Each structure stands twice: as structure tokens, then as C-alpha cells.
Amino acid sequence: MLGSLRTALVRATDRAAIRMTGGVRRPGEPPIVRARLPFLGHALAMGRDLTALLRACQRQHGDVFTLLVAGQRMHFVLDPLSFPLVLKAQDNLTFHEIGQEIGTRAFGYTSPPPGRDYDELESYYGEHLKNAALGPLTARMEERLRIAFDRFTGDDWREEGLFDFSARVIFAAGMETLYGEGIADDAAVRDFQRIDKWFPLLAAGAPAAAFPGLLRARGRLLVRVDRMRPDASPFIRARDLLLGKITTPRNRRHLQAAMVWASQANTLPAAFWALAHLLTDPPGRAAVVAEVEQRGFSDLKRLPQLFSSICETLRLCSESLTIRLVHRDCELTLADGSSITLRAGDRVALCPQVAHRDPEIFADPERFQFDRFLSDTGGPRQFLKGGQRVPIPLMPYGGGVSMCPGRFLANNEVMQFAGLALTQLDIELLEQELPPVDKTRAGLGVLSPTRDVRCRIRRRPRA
């Protein structure tokens, strides 16, 4: 009895030490980068500039190290050659609990637990967002983008912010493609932007009631997605029917509302950056315009220069974290043959942005190079580090079981947006220097600009 109490006390003391300081490093564990602040650890530094913090730690400790972030130990693995090994270690490293935690905090829903219902929901995405199902959605997206361009432009020049314009077009086209015509009015955009503004703090655990107007905006969004419009996409209709079978009506509405954020939050800034970079790169703009005018949008695979431009855009502006929960004490083998010891309850994190800006992988990494991802063979371009092929050189959509299921539709949407904007509109930037990315959203996907870019836009005169 006394021995059990002593063991329980030791474990409780150990957990408390981990939450406050990161605890004591055990043999085989990565080096712990100590922080000045107890509990918060490196959370504030991550919020200011995640990649700068990780690069500084990498220079001192190598590619694997441990940070304390809001009472949680996070082991960062920065060697891109080791990324597949982390993503494949599904027996010991899990994602469901992390996705559940973020979903509950940000949107108030509960995911189905692992099992038949969860597997059915996961397989549903593959059936409706890839392969044959992707074609009709992509065609519908092009149609709604053309309508949105007509809605938000005119024959005369209009001066406005390029980010604001891109966001209004993408939001209207994306929402109407999925949920049906009429859902994307000005009020819907404002409600979405209010939710998106506070998403980083919601995901970190701050209560929704703490932010002015957030609960009302979320409530209005729930009402919007609860009404099934006659021209809603088969994707949304099938998802709604499936959720109706496996969860409660309230949870179904919250899961549908979460899909709005998932489909829009990263696509909006990605569309802006793709267009902005091409507008400030005359050779890239000319190449993309010639390609689109010659081949059209009937088959996006026939637009390699536009595709490369979007890949290059995502390399520069995406800053996501791929995180796994350590399910049980284990060892993780890395690409160089070494291994690290992991403790149950800790987390393992990949930050592809560090590799995206690695000059050994991408020469002159801070420069936008529209044809960087083109290859002479027609297949994927190969990139090397230390003489070895980097297996996942571009990773803007996460990886493994947490890879964004809508990535193909999102990529197609950004390609269509940029191609149509450059060929259907006259756009003149009133400033040539693009703003830096907003680092306060680091870790969550594609970063927004710190400010808008003023421009003039009009519909191109039709012959």
C-alpha cells in the first residue's frame, strides 16, 4: 500500500514538473531547450515567430529537440528525411485526440471515437473529394469563380485592397460551390472573418465567450449551414446524411460549420499570395497567361507552369505544424539511423516551413521562382539534401492521417482563381513591394499578409 502511494506521488510530481519546466531529461530523450517562463515555456516566442525560434534551436541543438509549450512537451523533428518515419509510426503516434481537442475548442463539436463510424467518415472524404468526384466540383468551382469575378468587378477601374478582393471572390465561389447559391452574402463573410480572427486563440483553449461577437457569429453560421439548399454539392449533401446517422443534430451542425472554416481559412490567403506573386513577377505572369490562354481549364494537369507557381506560393506562405500525440512510451528511429526515446503524453511536431526555406533544398529560398517545381521529365521535380532525395519536399497540407482531405479541390481552386484573374481582369498594383506574412498565425496553415496591397481592378474589355 505504501509503495503504491509512493509511486503515485512520484508520478504526480513528475507530471507537475513536466508542465512547469519540461521535467528531467531521461536517457535517449531529445535535448530540452529550457525557457524562462514556467508553464508557458516557449509559447509566446512561438506566437511571435515560430520558424525563427525553431531555426535558433536547430543551430544549437540539431534537428531534434524539445520545447515546453503551455505545459506540454513538444519534440520537434526538423530533418525532412525523417518526416515519413514520423508519419508512418501510427502505432505509437496518434492524431485523433489532437484533432478532437482543436475541434471541441474552436467549433464545439465532438468527433466520433475511433471505430466504424469514424472510419466511415474518413473514407467518405476520399470518395467525394478525389478521383472521379473531383471533376464536377472543380467545374462547379470555375463557374462560381467566373460569376464572383463579374459580381465584384466592373468595366471601370476600381481601387481596392488585393487581399480583400481575393478573399471576397474566393469565399463567395468556395461557399456557393459547396453549400449552394445565396449562402455567401456580405454578412456571411463578416461572420467567417470574425471566427477566423480568433481561431488561433480558440484552438489554444481560450473560451469563445471571451471574444466580442464570436458566439453570435458562430450561431449565425450554424443556421446557414443547417439549411440544405437545392443546389448544394453532393459532397455536402452526403456528408450531412452521414453525420445525421452517426451523431446528434447539434453535433452535426457544428461539424458542418467547421467545414466552412476548413474549406476557406487557408484558401483565402493562398489565393491572394498566388496572384500577388505572379503580378510582381513579369516572366511568371507572362508564362502563366500564355499557358492558360492556349489550353484553358478543361484539364488542370495541362497547366504545369501555373501548378508550379501555386506550389512555389505555398512553399513561401504556408507554415503548418503536423503534430502527433505519443500514445505510449516508445522509441522513434530517424533517417540517420539514430533513435529517440519518447514518453507517453508528449507530442511530436514537424514544421515543414523550416525545410521549405532550407537553401540546401531550395536555392535562393526567399525568392519566388514560378518554375521551381517544373521538371524536364514531366514528373515531380526532385530535391536533394545531403545528397539524398527529399521524400516530401513540399508539405503545405499536413501529412499522413492528418493530411487535408480537401487539398486537391483547394489546389484546383487557387489555380483557377489565379489563372482567371490574370486572363479575365486588368489588375495594376499601386505598390510593388509585397508585405511580410503575419507570423501570429504560425503553425495553423497558410499565413495572411500583415497588411493589404492597394491595386486597381477592372474586367478586361471583351472582344
UniProtKB/TrEMBL annotation:
Keywords: Endoplasmic reticulum, Heme, Iron, Lipid metabolism, Membrane, Metal-binding, Oxidoreductase. Its cofactor is heme. Pfam families: p450 (PF00067). It is found in: Endoplasmic reticulum membrane. Its main location: endoplasmic reticulum. The keyword Transmembrane helix does not apply. Pathway: Lipid metabolism; bile acid biosynthesis. It comes from the Bacteria. SUPFAM superfamilies: Cytochrome P450. The keyword Secreted does not apply. Belongs to the cytochrome P450 family. This is Cytochrome P450. It comes from Nannocystis bainbridge.
